[in-house]
Specification:
Blueprint (H helix, E strand, L loop, with lengths): L1 H59 L4 H9 L22 H8 L7
Length: about 110
């Protein structure tokens, strides 16, 4: 009789441990599914942003893309400012050293 009571207590203990483990496992699964849903939503947003950026990038390399970019960027120049476009005509762009040499002064040391 004593052995059967001990066996019953051990079996009930194992069932309790299994029940608690399953309960904790269900909670962890639920948390993981919530996080996966959040990550999936963020991934969807980033995919939409990437598709929009890809379309804009492709539009810039289509015919007349350069002009489209210039029209888009024209608002960055204030209305009372002049646009300066540097063109290279065989001479290098002016630097501090070349300006000082042209004025006859020694070039400043950094």
């Amino acid at each position: 009789m004593l052995c059967s009571v001990i066996g019953l207590v051990v079996k009930l203990g194992l069932v309790a441990v299994a029940g608690v483990s399953l309960f904790r496992l269900a909670g962890a699964y639920q948390l993981r599914m919530e996080r996966q849903g959040e990550i999936a939503a963020v991934l969807e947003l980033q995919n939409a942003r990437m598709a929009k950026a890809r379309e804009r990038f492709d539009a810039l390399f289509m015919v007349e893309g350069e002009q489209r970019l210039i029209r888009e960027q024209s608002q960055w120049i204030a209305p009372d400012r002049l646009r300066i476009v540097w063109q290279k005509d065989g001479r290098p762009f002016p630097t501090v050293e070349t300006a000082a040499a042209a004025a006859g002064k020694p070039a400043p040391r950094p």
